């Protein structure tokens, strides 16, 4: 099938990508930030031979030349899935701590592939709905055609920094391909909030992604007196996002395309309703049944037709995703 380099291998989405790559027959090499994280991945796949799954340590994905040696592989790589993003606990300088690393982390791996990995045919970059959304003026329907209009100056404000970093990093990837004319083409995957079951070797409160934190808070009784504002009303299941990454290297016509991977709209009240239905034993920890939803009547729409037509994604329902997520969290005592 081919040999794949997957960056950010211990991330929430990447953990599901690994399972799909192996199931689809790809030889997979993952990058991780430490030996410990790499060993955890191998231990979670005890029956997988080492030529099918291995890891390399890249401590800082945004460092100059971080991927230069990694992409020099024997046998050589055919594809790269770039899910890694710079990791910072303490953002004091938006440019130095967030914007520059996000952009350099993306362009850095593209430069390394162009220079040292001539066999790579396609690179899939994990972007985000953050690079699509216009929070100041929502269109009637969001699709791959939309771009977040955030400016560099706005990105210096903490409330805009994350969205700006995703927007500028994705734009930098497309500009690199246009200007540098490398040996590969790219595709980007743009999901909104990502729900879905946690992978057992990442199981800890620290490893729960921001979206799943809502479901974790619900089942722990933290929203008993009422749910907080929903904020962003679009969601998708992690398994559908992971499959989209793999299909984006398997489907020839996916090259040069941007894919908005979104399953539907939801509100925090919807999450509570699904958990109440699926886990009646948790009712005392959940907010009152009659709390109002904060979803606007004229909520923006979304167009995910391209992902269905080109990648063949069949989206999971909110009920299935939230139930599976809550089940996985309850199984680890959260």
From TrEMBL:
Which keywords label this protein? Oxidoreductase
Q: Which domain of life is it from?
A: Eukaryota
Mind telling me which CDD domains this protein's record contains?
A: AR_SDR_e (cd05227)
GO molecular-function terms, A-Z = oxidoreductase activity, acting on the CH-OH group of donors, NAD or NADP as acceptor
Q: Which Pfam families match?
A: Epimerase (PF01370)
Q: Does the keyword rRNA processing apply?
A: no
Domain NAD-dependent epimerase/dehydratase: from-to ranges = 4-257
Q: Which family does it belong to?
A: Belongs to the NAD(P)-dependent epimerase/dehydratase family. Dihydroflavonol-4-reductase subfamily.
Q: Could you tell me what this protein is called?
A: NAD(P)-binding protein
- This chain's source organism reads Aspergillus ellipticus CBS 707.79
